[in-house]
Amino acid sequence: MKLQASETPSGKSHATRKRTPKVIPILLISTILIFTLYFPFLPKKLTLPLNITYYNKPSENTILITPRRPSNRAHGGEWAVRNPPPVAAGKVDSTTCDLFSGEWVPNPRGPYYTNTTCHTIQEHQNCMKFGRPDTGFMKWRWKPDDCELPVFDPHKFLALMRGKSLGFVGDSVARNHMQSLICLLSSVVRPLDVSKPTDENILYQYTRFNFNISIISSPYLIRTRRSDPNDITRPYHLYLDEFDQTWTGTISTFDFLIVSAGHWFSRPTYFYLNRTLVGCLYCADPNVTQMASTFSYRWAFERRSGLINGAGDFKGVAFLRTFAPSHFEGGPWDKGGDCVRTAPFRRNEKELAGYELDMYRIQLEELGIAQTVGRRTGVRFRLFDSTKPMVLRADGHPSRYGHWPAVNQTIPNDCVHWCLPGPIDSWNDMLQELVRREVGEKS
Predict the structure, then answer these.
(1) Catalytic position from the list 193, 417, 426, 429
(2) Which family does it belong to (predicted)?
(3) Cα dihedral 118/123/125/126 (nearest 10)
(4) What is the share, in percent, of the chain residues with pLDDT greater than 70?
(5) Active site (annotated) includes residue 177
(6) Measuring CA to CA, which residue among 211, 209, 238, 241 is closest to residue 226?
(7) What CA dihedral angle connects 195, 297, 366 and 57, to 10 degrees?
(8) d(Cα 193, Cα 190) in Å, to the nearest integer?
(9) Cβ neighbours of residue 260 under 8 Å, at least 6 residues apart?
(10) CA 7 to chain centre
């Protein structure tokens, strides 16, 4: 499924009582019991059923059953903003801290940009423009359990990335992430868009820092062909053992590569191996073997890892950003499903299941295989786990606030992409720390 057409204290009461030796211990015991009952989540970590420790590849015989970019560009090229927003203080306690095990905590200082100060927000992610009534979803930050994660500092990030190139490869959620990064950097400097007017891929340059950011649209990561070039709703043809030359030919140009995919793999598709049709997903042909989306998903990530490991001229760092869950409630995306929450889930209130859990497991398994091979080839594969934090953020999607109400037309609610500003901005807090570790640690 894909949405490409547009793609939540306890009160206090005070009673007067006589202080007697008998009452004091009773009050102490009652306090402990009440605290434990009302806040059972505080001492716990996020315990999703996601601890994958096996990386055995299935045998060869095993069958495991984006809209265009925004038209508005940076007018006049690069320009600086004199008064960037304040940045919350924070210091990472350890370079080995698990950034992805934690919880969302209030951040009254956020957000650090608005939909009027950032020029890269697409309409269908511009939730405040289209009347979203609540603002609390913008005032949370991700807090790892064992360390303090600094809020994104545009000055620090630009210093870390001076003379480097950053590439995002994937679907429209990858583009969503890149646009969040551009927005956060815009408090200091805006880039020059040097993309070709007709190109679906985007290249931004920060000339003063000799730094560039690219987004390469490759929602399946592997070679893809449309049944109808003018109708994206028709089935796609996936060549599982072939690379997508859209991005594979540019790997060597990046110092940091963030690869992600997932939301397109539940669409109707035909699967090919060695240019021969071997199966399909949601096709009406009774003569073609029906397979699950996990079949093509594993192939896609295996091809991706094999390509990067086999690229002898790639000397950078490849981050695998894991699947960011959607949050449709009350039905699927095409049956009135919606996402109307206004605050994050608390830890352990929400877990992955079904399709999304399968996707996450496959990503971790294939990452483990890639890292093993990478130790021999010298390629650094790193985990960028957006799954654990974002499974808790059902409040951060556009829902119906990615467009004006349509007359005599039903537009599906968007519970896949993320509002800007919004929870996706925390991905760049994580990215900044991941980059800092790599710049200082050439493992």
Answers:
(1) 417
(2) Belongs to the PC-esterase family. TBL subfamily.
(3) 60
(4) 78
(5) no
(6) 238
(7) -150
(8) 9
(9) 168, 169, 170, 171, 173, 174, 177, 320, 321, 322, 323, 324, 386
(10) 14
Helix or strand or coil: residue 370?
helix
Q: Which amino acid is at 440?
A: G
CA distances from 199 to 148, 202, 295 (A): 40, 7, 31
Residue 394 tokens, joined: 């059902």
Domain assignments of the chain as residue spans, ordered by start? 48-440
Active site residue 172: yes
Q: Are the beta carbons of 98 and 213 closer than 8 angstroms?
A: no
Which of 338, 358, 385, 414 is catalytic? The answer is 414
Q: Which of the following is catalytic: 165, 172, 186, 326?
A: 172
**What digits encode the pLDDT tens for the residues 189-241?**
999 999 987 778 999 999 999 999 999 999 999 999 998 888 877 899 999 99
| CB 1 within 8 Å of CB 417 | no
The order of strands in the sheet holding 276-281 is 222-226, 236-243, 269-273, 276-281
| CA–CA gap between residue 27 and residue 438 (Å, rounded) | 52
**Looking at the whole model, is its pTM more than 0.90?**
no
Distance CA 236, CA 218 (A): 13
Q: Across-strand partners of 399?
A: 414
